[in-house]
Write a structure and sequence with these properties.
single chain; 3-stranded antiparallel sheet; 3-stranded mixed sheet; 13 strands; 26% helix; globular
Length: 239
């Protein structure tokens, strides 16, 4: 019996060592920057094998220097079938410095929105980010808390909704921002400080494409189709 207990203990310890040794905790790497055609400089973070902007895009021209259409009227925005951008509530001075611009998917479709050497992530690349982040710090809280910026969210609500006392920690370094979005002429701009929504470059149909979002009331990442004319934030990933 004693020898059996010793053998069991040895096997248990070897199992723990093997599992721990195989589990590689990925740490974010900071220090890089990228500059868009307007001269805006964005900080970056490398998570796993991907390098991401840690700020939302705010460029007003495509990579070839042609202008993107700025649309302020809500009815015109809803009917856009060409590339367009706007600022939340059409207030650049208040929202641009923190949250960047909101773009429709037609701007994404051009393939010219990101700085040279970068691109708008596909749906699969967003999924890869989730997988990498899940290995960053598996005791630091939910996926939403690991991804979300420590600032600008209605943190008391998001902390309560996520069901524990851990504050937003942004241990991934991704710094997801609650920049809201722009929908149709009825709801127009909404959910600043409680929702962050970012386009992917992956279309679903002739009228929808995938977006990736975080909400202050949910602990998980949401990925779903959305109408191409919706206005959302953009994060770029390095080629």
């Amino acid at each position: 019996m004693k020898r059996f207990r010793v053998l069991y203990l040895v096997i248990f310890c070897l199992t723990i060592i093997t599992v721990t040794g195989c589990y590689k905790v990925i740490e974010p790497v900071f220090g890089g920057t990228v500059t868009d055609v307007d001269g805006n400089v964005y900080n970056t973070v490398t998570i796993g094998k991907q390098t991401w902007m840690i700020e939302n895009l705010k460029v007003t021209r495509f990579r070839d220097s042609t202008s993107i259409n700025l649309v302020s009227d809500s009815a015109m925005w809803r009917n856009q079938i060409t590339p367009a951008y706007c600022w939340y509530k059409n207030d650049s001075s208040t929202y641009n410095p923190i949250f960047g611009a909101l773009y429709n998917w037609y701007a994404v479709k051009t393939g010219k929105l990101a700085p040279k050497g970068w691109h708008i992530p596909t749906n699969d690349e967003w999924f890869t980010l989730e997988e990498s982040v899940s290995q960053l710090n598996y005791v630091s809280g939910s996926l939403a808390k690991i991804l979300a910026s420590k600032n600008y969210w209605i943190s008391s609500r998001i902390n309560s909704a996520l069901g524990n006392n851990l504050a937003l920690n942004n241990s991934s370094g991704f710094g997801a921002l609650p920049g809201g979005w722009r929908l149709n002429e009825r709801t127009s701009f909404t959910k600043i400080d409680s929702l962050g929504a970012w386009w992917s470059s992956s279309s679903v149909s002739d009228t929808t494409a995938y977006n990736w979002s975080l909400m202050n009331s949910l602990s998980t990442v949401q990925r779903a189709p959305c109408n191409l004319w919706a206005g959302m934030s953009i994060r770029c990933v390095k080629n």
